[in-house]
Design brief:
- The chain is built from 5 helices and no strands.
- The protein has 174 residues and is mainly alpha-helical.
- The chain has a single domain (21-171), classed as de novo design (two linked rop proteins), CATH 1.20.1440.
Length: 174
């Protein structure tokens, strides 16, 4: 009888350790999502800043200047974090991506005279944003996959953490 109680206590102890380990693993993944988003947000803010520099330092035609300036200001205006402004932020980032894409294509076709310095900065930040998006999406997918498991749902191991979501601009081709 004592053997059975000891075995049951040992099994229960292992089970509680597993729950604790799983909860802390999920917590680390949630932290990774938050830090990857903060890094991505900083890069997006830098990209908007470069777009404003291009708009102010270059003699663009008025339509391109207004488009670039408006999309950059809209992108910078909306704050980071997983807020109620997710849809607006996503639309603003998509609009800025499209504006920068048109600008880059026009500059490469020599229709617009943009300083090489600005094009290099834009190219560098775009590559960094692509990598940051990939890292962030990988973290979001890892959390979503883990939270979809039965043990996490049954024992509510995610606590009060919100389920991370994907912005639609993350699917844009930069």
């Amino acid at each position: 009888m004592t053997k059975y109680l000891f075995a049951a206590a040992l099994i229960l102890l292992i089970f509680f350790w597993y729950l604790s380990f799983s909860a802390s693993r999920l917590d680390r993944l949630h932290h990774r999502v938050e830090t990857s988003w903060q890094h991505l947000d900083a890069l997006l803010q830098r990209r908007a800043s470069i777009a404003l520099d291009i708009a102010h330092d270059t003699d663009l035609d008025p339509a391109m200047d207004i488009l670039l300036t408006a999309s950059a200001y809209e992108s910078r205006k909306l704050e980071s974090s997983f807020s109620d402004f997710a849809q607006e932020r996503s639309e603003a980032e998509s609009m800025l991506s499209e504006s920068l894409k048109v600008l880059t294509e026009s500059a490469l076709a020599h229709e617009i005279d943009v300083k090489v310095k600005h094009l290099n900065q834009l190219s560098e930040i775009t590559e960094k944003v692509k990598i940051a998006i990939a890292v962030h999406l990988e973290a979001v997918n890892a959390v979503r996959n883990l939270r979809s498991k039965v043990i996490f749902r049954v024992f509510h191991l995610y606590g009060h953490a919100k389920l991370p979501f994907r912005y639609s601009f993350e699917d844009d081709i930069l």
